[in-house]
Design a protein that fits this description.
2 domains; six-stranded mixed beta sheet
């Protein structure tokens, strides 16, 4: 007689709790059904469950997320970059103190090379029928950012190889919890055919029925709790095993009332924590995404001072609202600047800086609706400078044409280098190739943009 194992998985929730009551309802019901049928049911999360854009996660440093995972009896999780590099060292080191599940991250170490007390490289789960499943976890290799926070992140491929060597004689099958992204998952499948299933995250890929690469099943359930992944493994006797994958649309599910009430309570508690006053404004700070304004200019000045640079540049879209006259709370600052974005100091030539300024002042860039790179706003907006003056005008083609650039009163020298403070998101992807390819970059961590803003407001 064959045996059936059911694996359910979530990934990249990013603290979008809107669908959590539906997720809770479905997983509780499936657990009851499989227990009744005598079938093995396992539940995994693939990281980025925490995202500090949400007041609940901000107020609790992600610990409320762990409560939610505990309530659904997750069997194991791995971490994503939002757990790994948007929390301070101490916040991450204590995040899972109350977790009732193992945290599997084979490629994370302390600075001294020791494994953190709250991680394991793998877990071997034995079903009631005696089937042994090796579960490995790895997270994306953001070496610079982890080092800045006092961690050491190792090559995930090397770690997978080492763990497989350790467990291969003791397990009947291998599942990888991978917060590496789809392209790396495909490479893993080709390099390590002994892995049966790779449950993926990070790139928010949606694989409705999975994807088979080199006889390994790859899965991915999108983002924000829009889908729950389900993998059904049927182990036959004397015949080939069968693995099937599907995604369950959470929009079609009813809500779990207990989960809804718990989230309401968590939100109430978070509001109370974030209601702490941090500054009093004697006049409002006005914001305009497409013009210079007092609020965006204040932020540019704050970033310049924090990084001790010659000049700075920030996009107005990282601020979401104006601030009125009066008391400003932590909740206000979090609401108007929710992004997990850090300041960054660049050493850049005058030629490269001018190219960035030319690109930044195009309508296309100012009106870009960006998703990702830590940006949680709506539109990029005008690039705002402190220490840099850009002269030019709109011509008949409707575009702004730069005529002259000055840095601290002197014409931009194409042949000298400048120390410019900006945002880490400009150095991470394709937005500004001139910045992403720079060799000299210093990231300021763990303080986020809103921490620098709070610091500056307290001076006003």
């Amino acid at each position: 007689m064959g045996q059936t194992i059911h694996i359910y998985h979530t990934n990249d929730l990013h603290s979008h709790f809107e669908m959590w009551p539906q997720i809770s309802y479905y997983l509780k019901q499936q657990k009851i059904k499989h227990d009744t049928n005598g079938e093995t049911c396992l539940l995994f999360d693939i990281g980025d469950h925490v995202d500090r854009f949400h007041p609940i996660s901000e107020a609790t440093s992600g610990k409320a997320n762990i409560q939610l995972l505990n309530e659904l009896n997750y069997d194991a999780v791995t971490i994503g970059n939002n757990e790994g590099i948007t929390l301070s060292h101490d916040q991450l080191d204590t995040l899972y103190d109350e977790a009732t599940f193992p945290v599997i991250v084979a490629n994370l170490r302390k600075e001294n090379g020791d494994r953190p007390k709250w991680t394991k490289p793998y877990e071997i789960i034995t079903t009631e029928q005696g089937i042994k499943i090796g579960v490995i976890g790895v997270t994306v290799f953001y070496e610079t950012f982890y080092r800045m926070l006092g961690w050491s992140i190792l090559d995930p491929f090397d770690c997978i190889k080492q763990v497989l060597k350790e467990i291969r004689d003791y397990v009947d099958g291998v599942v990888l919890l991978s917060h590496l992204g789809l392209s790396d998952d495909e490479i893993v499948a080709r390099k390590f055919p002994e892995i049966d299933v790779i449950i993926g995250g990070h790139t928010h890929h949606v694989l409705q029925n999975g994807k088979v690469v080199n006889n390994t099943l790859l899965t991915g359930a999108g983002k924000y709790g829009q889908w729950i992944g389900h993998i059904k493994i049927t182990l036959g006797e004397g015949e080939e095993n069968e693995i099937q994958a599907e995604l369950v649309d959470t929009n079609l599910l009813p809500q779990d009332k207990e989960a809804s009430l718990h989230l309401q309570q968590l939100e109430k508690e978070a509001k109370s924590v974030l209601n702490e006053p941090v500054a009093r404004l004697t006049k409002p700070l006005e914001l305009n995404w497409f013009k210079d304004s007092s609020f965006s200019q204040l932020l540019a000045k704050a970033v310049k001072e924090w990084c001790n640079s010659e000049a700075s540049m920030v996009n107005a879209g990282v601020l979401l609202e104006s601030l009125p006259k009066g008391i400003v709370t932590k909740g206000d600052i979090h609401r108007i600047c929710p992004h997990p974005i850090n300041p960054c100091l660049l050493t850049i030539s005058g030629n490269q800086l001018k190219e960035v300024i030319l690109q930044a002042r195009t309508d296309k860039m100012e009106k870009l609706k960006l998703k990702g790179l830590g940006f949680r706003g709506k539109v990029m907006g005008r690039m705002i400078f402190d220490g840099i003056v850009v002269e030019g005008k709109k011509l008949e083609d409707g575009q702004f044409h730069v005529r002259e650039v000055y840095v601290n009163g002197a014409p931009l020298d194409p042949n000298r280098t400048y120390r410019i403070a900006t945002l880490d998101m400009f150095t991470l992807g394709p937005l500004y190739p001139e910045l992403s390819h720079l060799n000299e970059k210093t990231y300021f961590m763990p303080e986020m943009l809103r921490d620098i803003l709070e610091w500056k407001l307290k001076q006003s």
